[in-house]
Predict the 3D structure of the following.
Amino acid sequence: MKPTMVECPRESEVFEAVAFDRVHDVRDHLAECAICAEIADVAGALRAEHAAACREAHVPSAGAVWWRATVRARAEAAQTVSKPITILQGVAGACGVGLAVAVASLVWRSLHFFDSAAGFVARLEERRDEIATASALIVQHGVPIVLALAACFVLAPVALYFALADE
């Protein structure tokens, strides 16, 4: 009984011959070796399928490839640029939430302030006569002082202009 061959030492040579369309170089061996004949049939079918696929393939024009690459590059650039903006928007949102919580806390505390403010108003009511006397004194003497200060603030720049201006 003759052992059945599973491999042939010339398989790679046959495969290379089929791949480079030189089957006539190994035709004698293919007639003798069933394993290599089967490899040549399969490799030939694959080669024919590859050639048909290459003929049917639609290759876009160079302009179309360039345009797509440009659009893709712009989209990637826009995405890269928008990342910091997105992060800053998140930080701004977090700050807004923190500010809202702080304001709510202050409003809550101010509700307690109204209790103490009522006591303050009651103390002011007791000293109403003293406050009225002080207010009248400020109105009598304060208005001329405020007018004099306002005149200084207006006249000082004018005086400096004339003093430093070149004639």
About this structure: The chain has three domains: 7-58, 86-126, 129-167.
